[in-house]
Amino acid sequence: MGTKFRTTCAAIRGSLPLTFTFSKENSKIHEDFEANKKIKIETGDDYANLIIASIEPADSGKYSCSLSNAFGASRVTWALEVRGLILEKTNLKTKNF
């Protein structure tokens, strides 16, 4: 469909180093931007961006971002529904574990 999707997972506070992991339908998303120019994950000390270069209905699903350090972990989940050219991010939930 040609539309780029970007979401950011960021820590408000926490001890470094932080580890970020994005998942779709409980399966880890691996960056494959070099292979097919579709998915890119950008990271900094306290944030990570998930970028889908050309989003399409097949990208719809339940996504999550997990954040961890030596002291614990947290996860946020959301549902992404791609309908034509409209993007909706719904059901935002935060879960500490």
Structural write-up:
Helix content is 4%, strand content 64%. It has one helix and eight strands; from the N terminus they run E-E-E-H-E-E-E-E-E. Strand 2 (19-24) and strand 3 form a beta hairpin. The chain is elongated, with a radius of gyration of 14 Å. The N and C termini lie far apart (36 Å).
Give a concise summary:
By secondary structure, this protein is mainly beta. It contains 1 helix and 8 strands. It has one helix at 33-36, and strands spanning 3-10, 19-24, 27-28, 39-43, 47-55, 61-69, 72-83, 86-96.
Q: How many beta-strand elements? A: 8
Radius of gyration: 14 Å
Average residue-wise pLDDT: 84
The profile of the biggest β sheet is: 5 strands, antiparallel
